[in-house]
Amino acid sequence: MDLQLQDKSVIVLASSKGLGKAISTEFAKEGAKVLISSRSEEELEKAKAEIQEVSGNKYVEYQVCDVTKKDDLVQLVQKAIELHGTVDVLINNAGGPKAGTFDDFSDQDWQNAFELNLLSFTRAIREVLPSMRAKQSGRIVNIASSSIKQTLDNLILSNTFRSGIVGLSKSLSQELASDNILINTVGPGRIATDRVASLDEKRAAQLGLSPVELREKTEQSIPLGRYGEPEEFAKAVVFLASGANTYMTGQALVVDGGLVKAL
């Protein structure tokens, strides 16, 4: 299948490691011109070199960007346009908020989670829309969590704001359809990333288990019997963001090995 991504201009937020890096790597393999971003220039330099080596694609650049800062997002999109003349694809991504229950969090914690996991997506979309509307084409994929289908224990902040992303995406799918801009949300289940490993460590400590024991127990609840690899998740995202996707918009999908039992 031709994904029609050769020379397309792609921005991936929070992409120096984890799911963002895996997604950027898959785009690079398809010949896209990829602009990666994160708060750490050191991590970005390392990620750029690794993505170029794996993909053989020299058109990988980076921009330091804190997604909670509006000016950083403005500058990120401006750089993509300076480099490539346009933005064809936006992948919204951000680190997860703090784990905990309702009583654990102050107003500031809620505000921080809102800015990190919802407002950042809104701002980034606002910045790319003029470019996409000008050429009557674009793809936006918002990375969320499997909590968009089924809430997760001890992750009330994520449950709240990831659901907000679905509402944003569904509304925009209606508003942007006439401009041929397709927008979807994808939630990872138990994908083997540093974030999931950190959450597993905390949960294991609470249950008096080792992280290995907790992982084995969790894998028993996944129909495919294992955690997913970042590359497996990335391939689903890249399809939705590609020219091969011409009729899927406003959807909220999970890549979870069958873990979520909700319809």
UniProtKB/TrEMBL annotation:
Transmembrane segments: none annotated. InterPro entries: NAD(P)-bd_dom_sf, SDR, SDR_fam. Gene3D superfamilies: NAD(P)-binding Rossmann-like Domain (3.40.50.720). GO terms for molecular function: oxidoreductase activity. GO terms for biological process: bile acid metabolic process. Keywords: Oxidoreductase. Pfam families: adh_short_C2. It comes from the Bacteria. Belongs to the short-chain dehydrogenases/reductases (SDR) family. This is 3-oxoacyl-ACP reductase.
